[in-house]
Write a structure and sequence with these properties.
Blueprint (H helix, E strand, L loop, with lengths): L7 E2 L1 H9 L3 E4 L10 E2 L3 E2 L6 H6 L7 E4 L4 H12 L5 E4 L2 H7 L4 E2 L5
Parallel strand pairs: 1-6, 2-4, 2-5, 5-6
Antiparallel strand pairs: 3-7
């Protein structure tokens, strides 16, 4: 599912891992989600603080971290790894790559 030796996965691999039970976490800020977000993602913005986010998750869960372009999520993956989340990875290219690949999106207020 997720290679624990790698820090990034491609969006198609991330989607497959999500379908197999990995948790997709959108670390973008509230205002960034107005334009849409990856379907099924959980919102834990970076501004909420790492410690708070880590407390709400099980270290045994595979984590897929996504931001706009993959830079912030790569830093977040490193922080989660250092905190004992061995299967935390960044989604390469972030939401830009997710959207470009035609993967499922959700939009606020489109219930």
């Amino acid at each position: 599912m997720i290679d624990p030796n790698g820090l990034e996965v491609q969006v198609t691999v991330a989607r497959q891992a999500q379908e197999q039970g990995a948790l997709l976490i959108d670390i973008r800020e509230d205002h960034e989600r107005i334009g849409g977000f990856a379907s099924g993602s959980r919102h834990l913005p970076m501004s909420a603080g790492f410690a708070e986010s880590a407390r709400s998750l099980s270290p045994s869960l595979p984590l897929l971290l996504i931001c706009a372009s993959g830079t912030r999520s790569l830093h977040a993956a490193l922080a989660f790894r250092e905190a004992g989340f061995a299967a935390a990875v960044s989604v390469a290219g972030g939401l830009c790559a997710w959207r470009a690949a035609g993967l499922p999106m959700q939009f606020p207020g489109a219930d």
